Amino acid sequence: xxxxxxxxxxxxxxxxxxxxxxxxxxxxxxxxxxxxxxxxxxxxxxxxxxxxxxxxxxxxxxxxxxxxxxxxxxxxxxxxxxxxxxxxxxxxxxxxxxxxxxxxxxxxxxxxxxxxxxxxxxxxxxxxxxxxxxxxxxxxxxxxxxxxxxxxxxxxxxxxxxxxxxxxxxxxxxxxxxxxxxxxxxxxxxxxxxxxxxxxxxxxxxxxxxxxxxxxxxxxxxxxxxxxxxxxxxxxxxxxxxxxxxxxxxxxxxxxxxxxxxxxxxxxxxxxxxxxxxx
Length: 279
Ligand SMILES: NC(=O)c1ccc[n+]([C@@H]2O[C@H](COP(=O)([O-])OP(=O)(O)OC[C@H]3O[C@@H](n4cnc5c(N)ncnc54)[C@H](O)[C@@H]3O)[C@@H](O)[C@H]2O)c1
Description:
Helix content is 52%, strand content 15%. By secondary structure, it is an alpha/beta fold. The chain has one domain: Rossmann fold, CATH 3.40.50.720. It has a 7-stranded parallel beta sheet with strand order 3-2-1-4-6-7-9, with helices on both faces. A two-stranded parallel sheet has the order 5-8. Strand 6 (137-142), helix 5 (155-174) and strand 7 form a beta-alpha-beta unit. It is globular. Nicotinamide-adenine-dinucleotide is lined by residues 12-13, 15-19, 37-39, 42, 64-66, 91-95, 114, 118, 142, 144, 187, 189-190, 192-194, 197, 224.
């Protein structure tokens, strides 16, 4: 769909990283923004930045996307005052790396609640209203490379992101009859504050292997602004899948066309990551 002046866009995770860059880019295009995040202070900063550049933020609200009742209430309020959205963007997420034997049930709950229930709540509360009101539009969900490849130490994160890719693929077909396009964004490394907030269970922050891993991450990370640009183009061209960097294209290609090499690469990654636990 064409994104134009006044297009109504709902974005989760707008306070930081990819969500923030996306909100700023969309603001520059003259759209009407509806922003949410669990971090109120950072969300206000994003809103101030957009408004200083003459962007329009009609609503910004602190909300935990893992809390169905809270998302439902926010959606009802927004729909009552502004009607259905044109574009819904599920971007908020958290990262947690762990070996399964080190994880508590709370680790699982936290990741699945934010990364899977969050997007489901966005779809339940906002996309179904678009259908009810016969509003054509677009749905974007930010998954990850971890939603396409079995990345070691990503068991809960990967489960949530594979599910996001899966539900996006189903909705690609189910929403077509309602003229709602679907895009799933699968970034590899993106230089955002997630690099610092990622929880690596039972591994010390100062562990030299972790420091090295984060350095390597930054060396081939793309900017959140680039992800926002790619997502913008994908919406306009109704492109289903966005892979954000060449390394992701290569790994996904190898998985489909040369599985033994893909398998070997992941075994090497697994070997290297397991070494974090040995120090
Ligand atoms: N940065 C990367 O390398 C990378 C790679 C692949 C996928 N992703 C995905 O991109 C998305 C955005 O991540 P980012 O890198 O911009 O990280 P980020 O930490 O910069 O931004 C994530 C935002 O989500 C918000 N958030 C977290 N839990 C929330 C909740 N329960 N309710 C509402 N808001 C919540 C945070 O407050 C934050 O503002 C996530 O879904 C992440 O999994 C990131």
